[in-house]
Amino acid sequence: MFFERHQGGEHAILVHPELIDDKEREDPREFEELVGSAGANPVAFITSTSPQPNPKFFIGKGKVEEVRQAVKQLKAEIVIFNHSLSPTQERNLERELECRVVDRTGLILDIFAQRARTHEGKLQVELAQLQHLSTRLVRGWTHLERQKGGIGLRGPGETQLETDRRLLRERIKSIQKRLDKVRKQRDQSRRSRKRADVPLVSLVGYTNAGKSTLFNTLTTAEVYAADQLFATLDPTLRRIDVQDIGSVIVADTVGFIRHLPHKLVQAFRATLEETVAADLLIHVIDCYDSERDSNIEQVNDVLLEIGAEKVPSLLVYNKIDLLADRAPQIDYDEEGKPWRVWVSALSGEGMALIKQAIAELLGECVVEATLQLKPSQGRLRAELFRLGAVLDERSEDHGGWLIRVRMQQHDLQRLAKREGELQTL
């Protein structure tokens, strides 16, 4: 399997090229965090500044020589670039440096390969890796343009390179079929939730913003959470109870990053559909991060790419425990709706405010009514209490009840449809 990668620990030379005309520059600090998340051991950090990329090596010939000397002196096993490289550039660099060269996309793919735990997650990572590899198949091989030969190995005039490409295409098609099956299963589960009128709230945000920690604190789950990039790949769903709303499904999803490779967005389409189909997005933001505003823009760009830009969202500014003068609070917009909540997922401060904001945003169709129940409607009375909808109750002389309720309008309509008729006062 392609997702079974080296466990890390390799000596790595980091190359951070800066293009003067590039408006969206990569963050060197984030680059080091990515390399650390991949498990490599950085032994040198080399920067390069140029007006535009060199067509052959991306960086200039002088800088290539500097990297080559560093590889020899430090006995590095891999050179990692903080930028996407073309297959030709990658191949030329490997020939000059005499070691493996990995670009930013390959680095992120490697981290994803290490983090995937579920069968679905591994399939998605392998699909992205195969699509990335298909453009780099000629790298490092000398026999690929020779036709097969020898007894039992004669082919129909097909070169080894063509054979490998054909096998890759067949494997990609096989994985896509299996992921389509997963997608249909998710659609079926989603339709079941819709029929049961259970809202879906999806956590999104920049990688390492604290989504999994927030998810664990909010839902009392035990999802893996760590201070590293892409700690979570596989989506997890949990049910919570929200005042006036009832049951709500919360989904923890993969984090986003600058220039998230398009192949990954496509491969993780089945997972990201939980975001597109959500009733509400909780955009988790690391309020202590100096790149906070830029990270928000990057997340919005990915939401636009997957078609989730129109889903209502709530900004959650996490990690207020790192700020000296910030207390948990809800900020409201001009229409009186919550748009931002300040919390600390680590300490648990502000969790009740998140539920309150969810209730206010999803509870626009909450109604109050007084129901007159007959003695034979004891099961309905019990269900109203189970839903937490009862505000007040009085017993009547004939054995019935007068119950004042506050609940979602669609829940009241569902109960009325089931009971045939509800007597209201």
Automatic annotation (TrEMBL):
Its main location: cytoplasm. Keywords: Coiled coil, Cytoplasm, GTP-binding, Magnesium, Metal-binding, Nucleotide-binding. Residues 158-192 form a coiled coil. It is found in: Cytoplasm. Signal peptide: none annotated. One of its GO terms (cellular component) is cytoplasm. It holds the Pfam family MMR_HSR1. Its cofactor is Mg(2+). Mg(2+) binds at S212, T232. Belongs to the TRAFAC class OBG-HflX-like GTPase superfamily. HflX GTPase family. This is GTPase HflX. It comes from Zooshikella ganghwensis. The gene is hflX.
